[in-house]
């Protein structure tokens, strides 16, 4: 029963007064002919793999994460701009969105991949960890989307990619709050998609199963299930690329993970029996 740190938190400017003075000087944002993607959680795992895939595809990358050194590793060999950000801090999402728009002038794609995990019995979960998981995995993402969307809607184009989890579709024992946060993200994606109809802005929900990253090590409990088998971060990144390229609303990695939700909808009794045995 342990917690893990986020891969996307903010390092505040060393000199806030100097930063405020610089921001007061109006300068036109730089222009780029390449499409611009803001990727959070880009320090490692899915975020880092996704950033590298889009850089290879010719996108201009704005990378956010807690660990600057690891962000530099992700950005190596690319022209990506590093924007360390603390999404858990007051106005963290606002500060990141403003920094991204100042840097590139626009955001064509937001890949919201930052998040944390917690494993253990719910009755043993400290209230502080409940709040932390819900805020970083759900609230902070919603706030960031709220900050980024106006520019996309004004431009009449763009896409928001939300990184969910199979835990949000089926509910995983001893990951109750994490499952709740990812389920909330899935419903948020559906509702937002309806609101953005005819604006030119799309919403993609990415639903991976277990992924071979440092996520499980950071939360303090390794992945121990025989099924589903962990997939690679690169495979998830490729799925994100395909989903954005084809303007898909949802993508599951692997694709058979759509089955549990279908079973739940059609035969909830059977679904719960299977979950009791395998969940």
From TrEMBL:
Composition skew (Low complexity), residue ranges: 16-26
Domain annotation Ketoreductase: ranges: 35-214
Keyword Glycoprotein tagged: no
Key word Oxidoreductase present: yes
InterPro entries in the record: KR_dom (IPR057326), NAD(P)-bd_dom_sf (IPR036291), Sc_DH/Rdtase_CS (IPR020904), SDR_fam (IPR002347)
Molecular functions per Gene Ontology: oxidoreductase activity
Keywords associated with the record: Oxidoreductase
SMART domains named among the record's database cross-references: PKS_KR
Region described as Disordered: 1-32
EC number: 1.-.-.-
A Pfam match: adh_short
Family: Belongs to the short-chain dehydrogenases/reductases (SDR) family.
UniProt xrefs under PANTHER family: DEHYDROGENASE/REDUCTASE SDR FAMILY MEMBER 7B, DEHYDROGENASE_REDUCTASE SDR FAMILY MEMBER 7B
Annotated protein name in UniProt: SDR family NAD(P)-dependent oxidoreductase
Originating species: Streptomyces cellulosae
Upper lineage: Bacteria, Bacillati, Actinomycetota, Actinomycetes, Kitasatosporales
């Amino acid at each position: 029963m342990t917690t893990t740190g986020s891969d996307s938190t903010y390092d505040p400017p060393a000199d806030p007064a100097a930063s405020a003075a610089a921001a007061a000087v109006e300068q036109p944002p730089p222009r780029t002919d390449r499409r611009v993607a803001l990727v959070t959680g880009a320090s490692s795992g899915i975020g880092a793999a996704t950033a590298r895939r889009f850089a290879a595809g010719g996108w201009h990358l704005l990378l956010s994460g807690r660990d600057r050194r690891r962000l530099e590793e992700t950005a190596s060999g690319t022209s990506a701009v590093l924007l360390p950000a603390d999404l858990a801090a007051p106005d963290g999402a606002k500060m990141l969105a403003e920094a991204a728009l100042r840097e590139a002038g626009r955001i064509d794609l937001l890949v919201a991949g930052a998040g944390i995990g917690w494993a253990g019995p719910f009755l043993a979960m400290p209230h502080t960890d409940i709040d932390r998981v819900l805020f970083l995995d759900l609230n902070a993402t919603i706030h960031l989307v709220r900050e980024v969307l106006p520019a996309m809607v004004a431009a009449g184009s763009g896409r928001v990619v939300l990184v969910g989890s199979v835990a949000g579709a089926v509910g995983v024992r001893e990951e109750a709050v994490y499952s709740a946060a990812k389920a909330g993200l899935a419903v948020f994606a559906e509702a937002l998609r309806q609101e953005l109809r005819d604006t030119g802005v799309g919403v993609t929900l990415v639903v991976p199963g277990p992924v071979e990253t440092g996520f499980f090590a950071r939360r303090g409990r390794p992945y121990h299930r025989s099924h589903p088998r962990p997939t690679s971060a690169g495979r998830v990144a490729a799925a994100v690329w395909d989903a954005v390229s084809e303007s898909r609303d949802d993508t599951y990695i692997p694709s058979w993970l759509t089955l549990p939700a279908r079973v739940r909808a059609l035969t909830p009794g059977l679904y719960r029996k299977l979950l009791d045995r395998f969940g």
